[in-house]
Write a structure and sequence with these properties.
CATH architecture: Alpha-Beta Complex
Number of helices: 5
Helix content: 10-25%
Order of helices and strands: HHEEEEHEEEEHEEEH
Number of strands: 11
Radius of gyration: 16 Å
CATH superfamily: Nucleoside Triphosphate Pyrophosphohydrolase
Structural class: alpha+beta
Number of domains: 1
Largest sheet: 8 strands, mixed
Distance between the termini: 7 Å
Shape: globular
């Protein structure tokens, strides 16, 4: 059984199989609400520092199947956005009245933000919801994406898009610790640098939560 330190050594076919094995159809995580990659006991201690009634939102965690490599498709937010300007993120946003569920919202937002068509996307499952400081409770929806797509960015929201190898992000040697103080808690978070980009905050937290779920027994 792979441990978190071994995930980055798995060949693409085994990593792809692990994604399907661990996440297919997963939608409910009773009692498991995340702030970053922290376990529920840490989240419960610092939950009061975050909005009491967060707005429901969803993001797509798009894992592009490049055959010999799984990559994750990420966006750079526009510099003049109100929330998290310039940060690296997943495509997504708040649930709208016409969205049937988080999957519908994630697919809609992905189409709107980067022009990735639904015909390329295979929804696999969810990760636990994440609370973020800007007032959202985000459901990460994990999907496998087949190649052949062309992106069309909404420049009012997205400054750029890029892919990073999943195994690189899962390798502990590439994870840079950062101490962060939340209330009375001092917590270690991790930045995930890749090719001139720095993935941190909620996006890094969701990727490390994905790593945890793929590594668990």
């Amino acid at each position: 059984m792979a441990t978190p330190r071994e995930l980055h050594e798995l060949p693409a076919d085994l990593l792809r199989a692990r994604v399907r094995e661990r996440l297919t159809g997963r939608r409910e995580f009773p009692g498991d609400l995340r702030i970053g990659p922290f376990p529920p006991e840490v989240t419960s201690r610092i939950r009061a520092l975050f909005p009491a009634s967060p707005t429901p939102a969803a993001v797509l965690v798009p894992l592009v199947d490049r055959g010999d490599e799984l990559t994750v498709l990420l966006t750079e937010r526009a510099a003049d956005l109100k929330h998290h300007p310039g940060q690296i993120s997943f495509p997504g946003g708040r649930l709208e009245p016409g969205d049937a569920d988080p999957e519908s919202a994630a697919l809609r937002e992905t189409q709107e933000e980067i022009g990735l068509g639904r015909e390329y996307i295979e929804i696999i499952g969810r990760l636990p919801d994440h609370i973020i400081i800007s007032g959202y409770q985000v459901t990460p929806v994990v999907a496998l994406v087949r190649p052949g797509f062309t992106l069309t960015l909404d420049v009012t929201e997205v400054a750029g898009a890029f892919e990073a190898p999943l195994r690189h992000l899962f390798d502990p040697r590439n994870q840079v610790p950062r101490m962060r103080r939340l209330g009375e808690e001092e917590l270690v978070t991790y930045d995930l640098p890749w090719s001139g980009h720095n993935i941190w905050g909620a996006t890094a937290g969701m990727l490390l939560t994905l790593r945890q779920f793929l590594a668990e027994g």
